[in-house]
Amino acid sequence: MRTTVSDLVKERMGTFGLVAPSIAQCAVGSAIAWIIAIELLGHPRPFFAPISVLICVGMGLGQRLRRVVDLVVGVSVGVGVGDLLVSWIGSGPLQLALVVALAMTVAVLLNSGALFVAQVGSSAVLVATLVPVDGAGGFDRMADALTGGVVGVAAVALLPASPFSIAAKHLSGVLDAMSTVLERSAQAIERHDMDLAADALEEARTTQAAVEEFEAALETSKEITLISPLHWHRRSRLARYETAAVPVDLALRNVRVLARRTLASLGESSPPPAALAEAMREVSEAALLLQLELSAGREPTLARQALLAVAARERPRDLGFSAHVIIAQLRSVVVDLLQATGMDNKEAAATLTPLDDPAHHD
């Protein structure tokens, strides 16, 4: 499918809308941290304060609270080691290399986290290469980093992005991808089109990134509801996304297998029947219903009803090997999505037509 300029602009504007609160947090927080460090702490050039805000808030999805801890401790270690070594051996290229190597070695021994190690190393570089201003030492820099970290958390709490918009956008990406693969697979069966089935499989193979992005987005959303008083009373709404997270991931994994077997089945002497394509399409539509209902903050009853209708369907007869595998995967997808609507595994599995139903035998 060709991407038009308008589609690209729409996508970019949607992305901007998602990160706009983070931009505001970074901009306002940096200025406030700078003012606090100068006016209240009396530091003439507190460059670590606004830098700390930027690292704390960030521009992407992640765990801000953990970043604050890594930042403050990392700066403290980097500044402390850097100040100590520079006071002993002076400054210069060789001294810089030694300072960085020793500071990062200490960091790895304390905490192997990538952010922590990088922050220790960068702080040591700044200490080793910048001349202290008005006698400012390691303690002042550590105070600046702490100030920036606190302001960063406050910015997240008082200027929060909508946790539901973040979760909804990324879950929509996962469910859209799932729906697309199922729809293309259904069309491939109806048209006996192996090229279309191959396209569906290729699309399915690229879906893991969407799942990982949703998982990161959900963590960020949960974090915002934890930090921000503005969203404390809405945690139950986000719980629906938490309920859906693992089952949707499992459903998408089963859809990948389904797409692979769909392509294989079209090369067999007994290709899958059109009734199977129709069931795929119904599950595809149920995935979109789930997306819409969760985004609207509603209990996903319509999606559940649609899935229950598929679960109660009788299986087609006289199928080839790959078609049997497709049905098995589709049944698994239905169970996974029913769990995403809030049903437990046992209850969801019980809705399926039994495999040994006499109606399926000649």
Q: Could you walk me through the main structural features you see in this protein, from its secondary elements to its overall organization?
A:
The chain is mostly helical. The protein has 14 helices and no strands. The chain has helices spanning 5-40, 48-57, 64-89, 93-110, 114-129, 138-158, 163-191, 194-205, 208-227, 235-265, 274-295, 301-311, 321-340, 345-349. Helix 2 runs antiparallel to helix 3 and helix 4 runs antiparallel to helix 5. The chain is elongated.
Walk me through the topology.
Layout: H1 5-40, H2 48-57, H3 64-89, H4 93-110, H5 114-129, H6 138-158, H7 163-191, H8 194-205, H9 208-227, H10 235-265, H11 274-295, H12 301-311, H13 321-340, H14 345-349
Helix pairs in contact: 1-2, 1-6, 2-3, 2-6, 3-4, 3-5, 3-6, 4-5, 7-8, 7-9, 7-10, 7-11, 8-10, 9-10, 10-13, 11-12, 11-13, 12-13
